[in-house]
Amino acid sequence: MSVQMQAAKRRIRSITATEKITSAMEMVAVTKLKIWEYRLMQNQQYRAMLDKILADLLLGVNAEDSRFLHAPNGATKTFHVVFASDMGLCGSYNNTILSYANERILAGDTVLAVGKRSKRYFVRRADIDVKNQFVEAGGSIKMATVLPLERTLETAFFSGEYQSVVFHFNQYINSFETRATSFTLFPLGGLDKKGRKNVNEPIGPVIEPDKKVFLDRFIPLYLQNVIYFTLMSAQVSEQSTRRMAMKQATDNANDLLDELNIKYNMARQAAITQEISELVSGSL
User: Fold this and answer.
1) Does residue 73 sit in the same domain as residue 194?
2) Are residues 269 and 235 in the same domain?
3) Alpha-carbon gap, residue 69 to 158, rounded angstroms
4) Which residues constitute the domain of residue 192?
5) Is residue 277 a contact partner of residue 7, using CB atoms and an 8 Å limit?
6) What is the pTM of this model?
7) If phi over 0 gives left and psi between -120 and 50 gives alpha, with beta otherwise, what is residue 278?
8) Are residues 140 and 203 in the same domain?
9) What pLDDT digit, counting tens, does each position of 148-178 carry?
10) Considering 84, 98, 161, 204, which has the largest number of Cβ atoms within 10 A of its Cβ?
11) Within a domain: 117
């Protein structure tokens, strides 16, 4: 067997093994994507209803009616929460959101890294404070994760050190598209200390005993759902991107196998032809 045939055979075995791995990872990603996509769609209706309730509550409300609605006096820094994955092999998922968030994080700000890749990326910046207590929460979409995270964010905002708490994550659009996005978690509702959102808006629903008490009870529930929904959207985006990346890798492996099989067969045919020629020459 010629050296060319041996080399082609080794590469075929190597690429075949890689193709089996990428194909298996693609199937796992497809399964996870279907599960989390269904849960995300189910949760969207609940999220939409909570958004509507909050919007109604904020009609005619002053910023001073709740500590969730205005930034502390003198605060200048921003508390950023960046959602990335714990694992690699998910295409551009991590690079997209991490570079997107990095452009919006200023010197002196604080970053809460959700996901191991988020921590690994931001610890390289010496001009920011990186917190790691939820670094392994990227794939953990449970209330046992949501509740401590919500309390941590409340504590940070009410400390008076930060003017806002901002989320950065990959938003799931559809099976073929995700989008890096940001939104301000605190303060809620776009209110400031000047007063109402719009003095021409109606007063809104009548609530007993009063709106302030209801807001203090309702807003933590709303925040928990926002965090839960964000974790879920980030997870769906990760699995969607991983599925596409593994599918592309599997397709590339199959293309390489086709080329190598052609080269191997050509080398084999050349070797057989040479042996026949030598036999014919020897017989003469």
Assistant:
1) yes
2) no
3) 11
4) 47-243
5) no
6) 0.84
7) alpha
8) yes
9) 999 999 999 999 899 999 999 999 988 888 9
10) 84
11) yes
**Residues 6 or more apart whose Cβ sits within 8 Å of residue 171:** 178, 179, 180, 181, 233, 237
In angstroms, the Cα distances linking 89 to 26, 36, 92, 247 are 11, 19, 9, 11
Count structural domains, the chain.
2
Judgement on whether residues 177 and 253 belong to the same structural domain of the protein:
no
Tell me: do 87 and 159 sit in the same domain: yes
Residue 186 main-chain phi, psi, to 5 deg: -125, 140
Residues 185, 256 within the same domain: no
**In terms of domains, do 267 and 149 share one?**
no
CA 38/CA 41 separation, integer angstroms: 5
Supply angle C-alpha 137, 75, 104, rounded to 5.
55
Return the structure tokens found at 132: 């790691």
